[in-house]
Hints:
alpha/beta; 11 helices; four-stranded mixed beta sheet; 2 domains; 2-enoyl-CoA Hydratase, Chain A, domain 1; six-stranded mixed beta sheet
Amino acid sequence: MHPALLNIQVERDVLYLTLNRPAKHNALSTALLTELREAFSLYRDDPTLKAAVVTGAGEQSFAAGGDLKEFDSIRSADQVLTMRATAMAALDAVRHFPVPVIAALNGDARGGGAELALACDLRIAAGHTKIGFIQSRLAITPAWGGGVDLLELLGSAKGLRLMASGDLLTAETALELGLLEAVAAPNQTISECIEDFLEPLRRLTPLVARGLKTLSAAAKRGASREELLALEAQSLVDTWVHDDHWKAVARLFKSES
């Protein structure tokens, strides 16, 4: 029996997805991309979730990019667009997941792996991790929306520089640039870093987690101020009238009495 390409676990209101092709540096094959899309689609309506985490098996690679051996047979424009559509569906399922998604880089994120990392809302990394848009080394441009994500995150000049250079950045450099939110401390495992980073999200109610993700995602896609204010208002109403809010108020009053 072949091991699962994607390991799925739900624990303490968090969905954990582990890319499980360590012998192939967790390269993103069509089958793995399809399973990733299906998993995010399956859990998107789970009302208990507060966050999701995407990581890779092993310590060497988060994801080495697209599976070059599989994609070597892609030669025509139509085949390229079909491959892109499959991968875009997977990464869009990540981008549009209703609660915050964290990319936990247990190792290097290269090319398409970097695109997957940027499809997530937040990124943390083990200290030895390197991340890079290395597509230009293969004489191609980003394939799955990651170039757009990079430009939105860092701005046009810095994003262009990274895509043109094809550089692999250390975790510390990526943190300084704003590609990462946190890097594991020395002697801290990526699992420990994940749990530390998740702690504020775990304190949220599921409805607040969804409201914050909705607002953040709309801002990322360039929604107008009026649209953002309308989303903020609706989220406030939804959370204010919910029992979770009144329970939190009661706990606060009790602690102060």
